[in-house]
Amino acid sequence: MKRSAGDKISQIIIIALMLLLCASVIYPFMSMLSIALNVGSDAAKGGVYLWPRKFTLYNFEVVLGNSVIQHAYLITIARTIIGTIIGLLVTILVAFGLSYRQLPFRQVILSYILITMLFSGGLIPLYIQLNDLSLLNSFWVYIIPSAFSAWNMFVMMKFIQGIPEALTESAEIDGANPFRILLIIILPLSKPMLAALGLFTAVWHWNDWFAGAFYVSDQNLIPVQTFLQQLLSAQDISAVLGSNNNQEALARGSMISNVTLMSIKMATVMVSALPILCIYPFLQKYFVKGVLIGSVKG
Question: Which segments constitute the ABC transmembrane type-1 domain (predicted)?
């Protein structure tokens, strides 16, 4: 089919806009990476934008060799793995149960969950509740409050309701109980949705700095993003030295002449961002539509 001149012009404009959008997203990342890979004292002179002028890996050696960041990394990895698994488990169980239209008080429960999604009690009541539950200054403050997401539950429930009823009805006729139906039918067909929700949940856990900053005072329990937030808020090395122990430990490694606070900041940003970016290609295949095609045949 021959395209008209208008279609060709529209396609060129769309491609140009997409390239511009990609450049606007990639440029800040490349700029930070080039500073992180450049000698700090040289990068402080300016002019380092897309490629390091004096290449070095010492900034990453300082960051990755710091015991405080290593421990914060372990906290973040443990939080992301445990939080994602528990979050998906709670989401699939609640969504599967509420997908049964014959469930007693189903509408009341759904209305209550919807209210919690639309309205919040506020930060102070949440802080008081976490204190009453003895979750403050604990690793589980990262896991338990975020174990259930109303939005994820509604998305998962709608996905389960979209599965043909003939599948579950045939399993019920064969004597399968709800738990067995969940294991042999719902879970295998829900892999794309679970992968998507799992990715979103993992990214949220990995990037969250708020809980570590406000609910945890023990520096041995802060995640790497909270440490990064504390580091980015510092104005100079002397400010870092006078703040707290974990920043002080990093700053002591930054007193070398060719390392600056800015180069350490950029290296820390890269170290905290790259792992979660590497997960996307492995989960992308689960986003393919049409899993249910051919599952029910007339």
Answer: 73-268
